Amino acid sequence: MATHKWLISLLAGLSLMVSAGIACSQDLPQFSDAAYQALADASSPATIPPGTVITMQNWQQYKQFMTIGMQLLWSGKAAVMKLPADAQMEVGPTIPIPLPKIYLQNTEKYSAQAKLVKQENGGYHVEGYVAGLPFPNVDMKDPLAAYKLAYNEYYRYIPHVGYRQTKQYVKDRYGNVQSSALFTVYWRLKHLSDPGMGLEDPKNNGYDMIQYIETTAPEQSRYAASVKTFYDDPSKQEDIFSYTPSLRRAIRLSSMSRCAPATGGDTLFDDTRQGFGIHPSDFSARLFGRKKVLLVQDMNETLNEQLEKLQAFGPAFEANVYQPLLFFKPVYAKWQVTDAYVMDYRRLPSAGAESYCYGSRVLYQADTNASPGIDLYDNGLKFWKVAFIYVAPETIPNTGGDIFAQDSNNAQYYVDLQNDHVTISTSALEVLNTEVPAQFRNIERYGLPSGLDQITQ
After folding, report:
1. Of 384, 150, 352, 184, which Cα lies nearest the Cα of 255?
2. Under 8 Å CB-to-CB from 294, ≥6 apart: which residues?
3. What is residue 407's predicted lDDT score, i.e. its pLDDT?
4. How far apart are CA 182 and CA 198, in angstroms?
5. DSSP 8-state code for residue 405
């Protein structure tokens, strides 16, 4: 009888714990236009002086400069994933990042040819795009401004080929940790703006972009790989192919796999390409304006040393992040007040919005045309994930010092506030174009889907 009573008490306690977790999850806000409209306008004289340290005591003075996700981390509304009382964010100077010269030359040469065309599904695609920025002078009063900015992000500068080594660290609400290692080879095959290249790779096979990811550790996951392809023809949906070592063959995944974890953490296949692994033609786009937002576009000068510490995921890493969020302390990065377009993307009903992973994807698009800040809402428009891309610019070979500062060396940080998960992916080795080892410049092996079948040969 005593054992029976003890079991009842245990189950009741577990039920209360679950109920408390659910109740706290329900404290997460619904999508609010007003919250985004309240962010500081880029035209406002308000700013945060470099050297300012944001703490738990003063953060609300600066909330107008924070993404909505960042505000939630400071507010403590999430059950587990919240900043501790001693958390600090240090604000550094804003460092402009110029676009590559050839990309700007192509913008001047070709942008007048690009125009938006409405599709039957209600979305828009671009006709006449050749290379460079399709829409360099966007008027925010233009009713199509949001769609033009969407394509500016989609066609932002990406090198012909890039290779990076990445380590991923995933932690759940109970403190359980999973780490893995992988490498990525990504390709831009059309609309190129690189020295010594034409406008397209003759081996493009109709693809505009390809992303190849292969796991190297732990051993039980070694050789697991995926390829995501983006067609140049906007009427064709992206394809995802997966290689499972135990089956020794590659399979094409269903369209629903876009909402599956890409590498076992909190990032989905549609979160790849720095949070914009989507085609704009399948989404509505809405612009909340140009705002002043705290983002990280240039990590500290001791970049390589810091990224090596991050990749070790050992004592040096644990000592320099705030638990349990694994949120970076100022030693890793200083935040900058950055002008950013705040964009709300929602999948169109005709493209399967009812079964899509996100009800809204809010991107904070900087002048690099990439988005270092991301808010993600579930299909019921309750806040779900906060993400930041900590960018470390990389020099483009043979350009005289031009910078690639979007998908380059970075740390990608995703926090699932509903399920109390956090994922950090860090890239400490990034090489571009001619500096990519010859082995990985083989598109038949490390790009086209057919290359997956060569993994264990």
Report:
1. 352
2. 48, 62, 65, 66, 67, 70, 89, 91, 335, 336, 337, 338
3. 60
4. 31
5. -
Tell me the residue type at 154: Y
Distances (CA, A) of 72 to 367, 387, 415: 25, 12, 11
Distance between CA atoms of residues 39 and 42, nearest Å: 9
Q: CA 360 to CA 348: how far, in whole Å?
A: 11
For residue 66, give Cα distances in angstroms to 27, 36, 47, 339: 19, 10, 12, 12
Check if the beta carbon of residue 163 is closer than 8 Å to that of residue 440. Answer: yes
Output phi, psi for 234, to 5 deg.
-65, -15
Q: How confident is the model over 391-431, as pLDDT tens digits? A: 778 889 999 999 887 665 578 899 999 999 999 988 766 88
Helix (H) / strand (E) element for 151: namely helix 145-154
Sorting pLDDT into bands at 50, 70 and 90, what band is 276? Answer: confident
Beta-strand ranges (E) seen in 40-114 are 53-55, 88-90
| Neighbouring C-beta atoms of residue 53, cutoff 10 Å | 10
d(CA 41, CA 46): 9
Nearest by Cα to 337 from 377, 366, 306, 310: 366
Establish whether the linkage from the previous residue to 324 is cis, with ω within 30° of 0.
yes
Helix-then-strand count for the chain, H and E: 9, 21
Two structure tokens written together for 129: 């795009």
Place of tokens 């990042």: 97
* Tokens at 306, concatenated: 């810091």
Measured distance CA(293)–CA(308) in Å, rounded: 28
- How far is residue 401 CA from its own chain's centroid? 25
What span, in angstroms and rounded, lies between the C-alpha atoms of 145 and 161? 30
What residues contact 150, with CB distance under 8 A and at least 6 apart? 280, 283, 285, 343, 345
Q: How many residues does the chain have?
A: 457
pTM, two decimals, is 0.91
Report d(CA 151, CA 208) in Å as an integer.
14
Question: Phi and psi at residue 64, in whole multiples of 5°?
Answer: -65, -10
Residue 327 pairs with which residues in a beta bridge?
A: 322
- Dihedral of the CA atoms 433, 157, 125, 355 (nearest 10)? 80
Q: What is the CA radius of gyration of the chain?
A: 22
pLDDT tens digits for range 230-269? 999 988 889 999 999 988 889 999 988 999 988 888 889 8
Question: In the predicted model, what is the mean pLDDT of residues 313-339?
Answer: 84
Nearest to 209 by CA among 137, 257, 274: 274
Helix (H, G, I), strand (E, B) or coil at 356: coil
Backbone angles phi, psi at 362, to 5 degrees: -105, 120
